[in-house]
Amino acid sequence: MQAIGWILLILVILVVAAVLWAVGAYNGFIKQRNLIQESWRQVDVELNRRYELIPNLVETVRAYAAHERNTLEEVTRLRNQAAALAQSAGGGSATTQRAEVESALSGAVHNLLVSVEAYPELRSNQNFLELQRELTDTEDRIAAGRRFYNANVRNYNTRVESIPSNIIANSFKFEKAAYFEVNDPAVRKAPDVNFGEISYRGEPAPINEPSRDPKPAIPASDPDALPNPQSYQQPPTAPGGYAPPQS
């Protein structure tokens, strides 16, 4: 009887220890998931800051380089579309649709900054230089936020895949989070620029022109959902200091 009592006691201790470990592991996943969401929101703040800077940049360039109408309209269209998607998503998560638009916007802004090399007067304009500096600072903060976000994702994903914590992850549907990184080789390569090729002339498009290629509205995201920024890309180095660091 005494031996049975000791066995029962050991079993109770093991069960209690297992329960305590499971609770701790679950709470750890919740904490890491919240940290990932919060670190993404910090990046989202800087993306919205970029939305605010782009209209002023477009108007400044238009005053000196009206021939670049195609580029200016594309930047404006993508900016409006990205801002609308960000508002629809509430800023709490990064959808694949938004990531694609943000990537296209980064490329369009990069091409615009490259094209101004053909306009010396614009490159010496103080307002343009200030906007370029602010965009550079914003991109630096986006890159820093991306590094912090990726570090949190790495720690979280390691626990999701590791034994024995993967038991809790599988039981409670804690799925792997997506990294926020440049994964398109074409984005890493600076585009070829032909300054002899001038866009068509015409009346400038208004800054608040609605997107001509609207995307369907994004439903409110699950508060427990993880961001999915795997397609979001940073622009490559552009003349004049527009060079966000890469992690």
UniProtKB/TrEMBL annotation:
The record's comment on protein family reads: Belongs to the LemA family.
Question: By what name is this protein known?
Answer: LemA family protein
**Pfam families tied to this protein:** LemA
Keywords attached to this Swiss-Prot or TrEMBL record, sorted alphabetically, are: Membrane, Transmembrane, Transmembrane helix
Respond yes or no to whether keyword Secreted is given for this record.
no
Major location (coarse): membrane
Q: Which organism is it from?
A: Propioniciclava tarda
Q: Which GO terms describe its cellular component?
A: membrane
Topology in the membrane?
Answer: Single-pass membrane protein
Where in or outside the cell?
Answer: Membrane
SUPFAM superfamilies of this UniProt entry? LemA-like (SSF140478)
